[in-house]
Amino acid sequence: MDATVKQILDGFRFSVNNYTSSLGPENVKLVRTKELVESLQQKAEDGADMMAISMDPEFSEVATLMGELASEPSLPPDEQSHTDTAGDSTRDGTAPPASIAAAGYHLAYDSMDSATREKQGRYYERIFEIEDLAENALHFNTLLVEDDVLFKMAREPLLETAKQTLKQAEEIHSPTVDFQQQLAVKTYSEVKTAAELEFQGTLMAELSNVEHEWDALFIEVMGLLPACAQSIEAFGPDDDNVAKLRNSHRFMPEFMGITWDDVFADPRYLLFWNKIFWPKVPQEKRDRYGVNSAEGWRDVLKEQFYDPYIKDEPVPEPDPTKARVNFWKKEYPVHEALDLLNSPPRPFIER
Amino acid sequence: MVDTFEIQKRYFTSQLEQLRTEPALNRARIEDCEYYLQMLEEAGSPAEFKKKIQQTGNMVSTAKAEVHDRYDNRAFIYDSLGQVRKAEEDRQRLGIIESAENHSELSMKLEDFEKSTELAYNENKAINSVNSIINALFHLNTDGTGSKDEDRSLIKFQTYWKLIKEADPDVSWEKIMTYRPYRDRIIFTDEQMATLEKKFREVCDGRDS
After folding, report:
1. B150 in helix, strand or coil?
2. Separation CA A321–CA A299 (nearest Å)
3. Structure pTM?
4. Cβ of A135 under 8 Å from any chain B Cβ?
5. What's the start-to-end Cα distance of chain A, in Å?
6. Between vectors from CA B177 to CA B172 and to CA B179, what angle results, nearest 5°?
């Protein structure tokens, strides 16, 4: 008989025997479960493999009944002691074999594709080593608790994903993604328990979501003036985009103390401009305007698509008292944004 | 040949030792583990212990303790971040866990709850709408009057304002300013927000203030 099928059917039989003592041998659902397990046993002996057994309607009926048996009312304690059956190997508290406790791991291992097995297989192989060492299911569970294999099995994929994301993030030049993934690698490397892994994972994700959105809005706001010039360059001047540029030229200094020069002195915006925006400017445009650098593109926009439309406007003055942002409940100078995102002053949350 | 009674003791002791490395995150599990360790000591033999386990619900308390700690820890995080509805949803889960009397009831009740609850979904939906609203208000301050830009910004504002109202019927400008999950995402200082508020009152015509 297929080894995995045998382990699963042994597990079913063990549970049925257990319920026999607590529910009594006459329990209707228990009787039905026994019949089904015996029928599946016969099919397995006749050559049915794991796939055939798991697709058999009797298999799903057993699984449903097992769930229902868990909520069946137990017999009163004094009646339970008289209902142990001769076949109940657990009536004296003797533990079942380790193979029953390990059956689920075998099932998972056997059904893995080769890529998953390459990543996860080593943990299962360690579990099977423990199974070989264990004298029974209780011993197996104890050795599993004392070994760190299950914790590693939960932690390593998270660690690996964080490292991969960090590597992929090199191309997107996002301070929030970099910070989050570096922190994830550090935190996941240091945690010692599954509960801590879960707690820190949830907390980091929530904090990081705030910072991603904050950063996106920052780029949008800081980029308003160049975006206005870019619109005129792309679509030609019309009433709408010229009005937008002139209004923005007046609004940004009043609202945030920011002028064109401040935008291009801001480290966070420059990171975006140099690494994300400029590389996407098409070659045809670079050739047309004869520019080959991010600075050159900035100057073309300023000289040809910004200044000509604000000639009659007063020259705005930067105002550092207004050039401030709110971040994690405190105000900071706008130009500290990149430093803040690289090392965010997150609220300290510890349990 | 291992001594089953000693192995059972070792199982709970080892588990307890690990749980106590992070006691604040494992409160229910620690209590549960201590309970079974004491039960084992009192039982004095594997057979007696097994009988007691069967009489006390086949260790449903352990399954309950595991999920209790998970949602209790998560509620703590959401409370700390001011995400009231997500915290409330997890507290409702804790109530359900508390009320379950056996394993299948525990899983069925939690499963039913997942299908019916919308608190966390709506919290996220509202949170994810906030910066689009602020973005639209920011642009409305610079869009030309009657321009296509203004039309687009207005549509954006109305779309996201509708979404946030669906998810959080109590939302108002005052709530955006004070509810931390909303305010933390917004880059603007209170003074800058006062400028955006004027635009907000204009486009909402005072109805949602």
Report:
1. helix
2. 27
3. 0.84
4. yes
5. 51
6. 85
User: Looking at this protein, which amino acid is placed at residue A131?
Assistant: E
Distance CA A101, CA A103 (A): 6
**Residues of chain B neighbouring A136 (CB-CB closer than 8 A):** 2, 4, 7
The tally of CA atoms less than 13 A away on the side-chain side of residue A324 is: 13
Q: Please give the single-letter amino acid code of residue A291.
A: V
Identity of the amino acid at B138? F
Look up the ipTM and state it.
Answer: 0.93
pLDDT (tens digit, 9 = 90+) per residue, A169-208?
888 899 999 999 999 999 999 998 889 999 999 999 999 9
The amino acid sitting at B185 is R
Q: Which of residues 24-83 of A touch B (CB under 8 A)?
A: 67-68, 70-71, 74, 77, 80-81
- Using CB atoms within 10 A of its CB, is residue B114 exposed (0-12), middle (13-18) or buried (19+)? exposed
Write the residue in B69, B147, B185 that is nearest to A213 by C-beta.
Answer: B185
Strand partners, A202: none
CA proximity to B53, closest of B68, B63, B43? B43
Q: So where are chain B's domains?
A: 4-117, 122-204
Chain A CB contacts of B111 under 8 Å are none
Is residue A65 pLDDT above 70, yes or no?
yes
- Find the closest chain A residue to B86 by CA distance: A206
How far, in Å, CA of A97 to CA of A3, rounded?
A: 14
Is there a contact between A351 and B78 (Cβ–Cβ < 8 Å)? no
Residues from chain A contacting residue B78 (CB–CB below 8 Å):
206
